[in-house]
Design a protein that fits this description.
Length: 259
Amino acid sequence: MKPRDAEQIGLNLRPETMSEVTPTPESHGPEPLVAIRGVSKVYERGRQRIEVLHHVDLDIPEGDFLALMGPSGSGKSTLLNMIAGLDLPTEGSLSVAGHRIDRMSSTELARWRAANVGFVFQFYNLLPALSAQKNVELPLLLTRLSGARRRRNAAIALDLVGLADRASHKPNELSGGQQQRVAIARAIVSDPTLLVCDEPTGDLDRHSAEEVLTLLQRLNREYGKTMIMVTHDPKAAEFARRVLHLDKGILVEQADIGA
């Protein structure tokens, strides 16, 4: 894909955007894209009180690629869902690009997600009756773009993920890795502020997983996309810039992979 084509769907070429940012809650540098302060999440089930997250503090700078790891039940998916505006904290504050999403109503959150978050799941969630092109166009149906512009932007996104020649194929005509790349194209076609990935390689063989992870890494390093990825796979985490470990809802360790 030519840089000019990428810019037409809003993808700005900003390599090494993390090089001068220290990603810690105590940083006095640029305002973080995501600022999490004292966030806890408690579920009440009858008389049972289950604390899933416990006073988490975290900054995620623009251009970060953060991997969230931890055992099942550690709170990593809950934290990811909060960052994506799918869940709200019981206490604490959560800001994205200066917006306090923890204060938004459900209607405001839905609008915010549509404009700011791209989702990549373990299972691709492609509509089986639609071609790859039409699947990628779906988020653009919520915009005021013309049909011609939607088709062009979807074609550009498919080209970016290396599937321009599969635009007319339906999901059952694509491999698992190709389907996940279509899902990534769908996630980036509207140029979201954040890309959130929940076990994006969990249903793929090692070769396909590496292709998908290499693509995500490229989107981060060449196009400056900010990403948060939940994974159980240490090999997958190596593609991130930072790895954050949660245990029993507590942030216990951070590791910098490096630029």
